[in-house]
Amino acid sequence: TTAVLSGVELAQEIRAQVTATAAELTDAGVPPRLAVVVATDDESTAWYVRSIARAASRTGIRCDVVDLGAHAAPDRIRDELAALSEDPSVHGIVLQTPLPGAARAEELAAALSPEKDVDGANPVSLGRLSAGLPAFAPATAAAVLELLDHHQVPLSGRRAVVVGRSNVVGRPVAQLLLRRDATVTVCHRWTRDLAAHTRQAEVLVVAVGEAGLVGAEHVGPGAVVVDVGTNPTDDGGLVGDVDAGAVTGRAAGLTPVPGGVGPVTTALLLRHTVDSARRCTT
Ligand code: NAD
């Protein structure tokens, strides 16, 4: 049988810890504050940002959504990130993607103070992560590791395969797995015979954005599969990159979509924000 590796209870636990820490910080005169910079009118982004804001307010974190509009110039976005980085009352800053045409997230995120870069978007954060130095990992990448730990999946010495190499998910997940002494293979768009690689995985992390990409032929018996993909369906639902029906019975465990990586991601964004705020008290 295939265990369903839910993220819902873990996200609740994290939010409970964050709520306690946020209350302590507020009592100490440092009310934690998160800013989310948005420059798109994309509907699914708006939905995601609302869910962050709701989760923040429930845990006692002030959350400001700074909407610069879908036509914001790159310089305008950069200036906003720099101003928030300078503002001592702001502890966490998220630059939400997608961005308007000419703007590149990696370049703009360089304007974010690494101390407040709670979603690990500044290339400096990814570099520090790769060098084994303290840094905020992108919340989604951190959520993959938190979920694996929560469900007591051993990593040291094991074969881990990551499908996808974006700076937001695939690459930082690979770095975090390396840090935990897994033997890591990274597959991507140009990988020949994807299934030959993924079948070797004891831990398989899929972050591509293509519904049904991973089927039974991609999964070795007993593998633990983390499905990061979020693909909207015609009927307004959400499915992952893994064909859950095909993999069930073969994998030892599979994270559901929705209810797997997603809720943990949001909770970790909040945890990173209180971690950043706590540094202001010491
Ligand atoms: P991206 O488009 O930036 O990167 C996709 C990666 O997949 C690329 O590295 C590409 O080389 C690789 N790829 C594309 N086609 C492939 C194929 N056929 N075989 C193997 N590799 C292939 O996407 P992203 O930002 O990394 O996001 C990936 C998915 O994760 C998306 O569905 C996204 O919505 C989802 N996501 C979920 C969360 C969450 O909190 N649950 C957060 C971020 C992203």
Overview of the structural elements:
One of its GO terms (cellular component) is cytosol. Residues 5-119 form the Tetrahydrofolate dehydrogenase/cyclohydrolase catalytic domain. Residues 138-279 form the Tetrahydrofolate dehydrogenase/cyclohydrolase NAD(P)-binding domain. This is Bifunctional protein FolD. The protein is an alpha/beta fold and 282 residues long. 40% of the residues lie in helices and 15% in strands. The protein is built from ten helices and eleven strands. A six-stranded parallel β-sheet has the order 1-11-8-7-5-6. Helix 7 links the parallel strand 5 and strand 6. Helix 1 runs parallel beside helix 10. The chain is globular. The model has no long low-confidence stretch (mean pLDDT 97). Bound molecules: nicotinamide-adenine-dinucleotide.
